[in-house]
Description:
- This protein has 3 helices and 5 strands, in the order αβββαββα.
- By secondary structure, it is an alpha+beta fold.
- The chain has a 5-stranded antiparallel beta sheet.
- Helix 1 (3-20) runs antiparallel to helix 2.
- The longest helix has 18 residues, at 3-20.
- It is globular and about 50 Å long.
- 21% of the residues are buried.
- The mean pLDDT is 96.
Amino acid sequence: MNENVMELQQEVARRAVADAGEREWDRITLSYVDIDVVSTLDLQVHLGEKAERLTRFTCDDPYHELRAAMATPEHGTWYSSTCEITEDGRFRFHFEQEERPVLGGGVPVTDESLIADQHRFPRPADELPAWHPAAR
């Protein structure tokens, strides 16, 4: 993993913790989708079984930069990501490259957005999931 990617992951996590403010928490979860010009971020602060969804946050810009930083000319980049931050400051990202992305509220990403995203971050045809409109 290159240094810029590590720094951006740290920045996403740092900002998410700062966005939690003075709330008590034992875990923060983020779900991020970024396709073409559409993106959604869901940030939740958890304490035991209780969760609070935050509506104001600052970690979306570095998350957007992270997606671009992880793109390669040979393989494109991921469609969606999740991140979990624990109270000891550790964080773990998962990057989804195979499943069709779904925006907040369960809204599917349009075929037009997926095709535009494929032009921006091209993947070879043999690496496109079968559901992708450019694979048809």
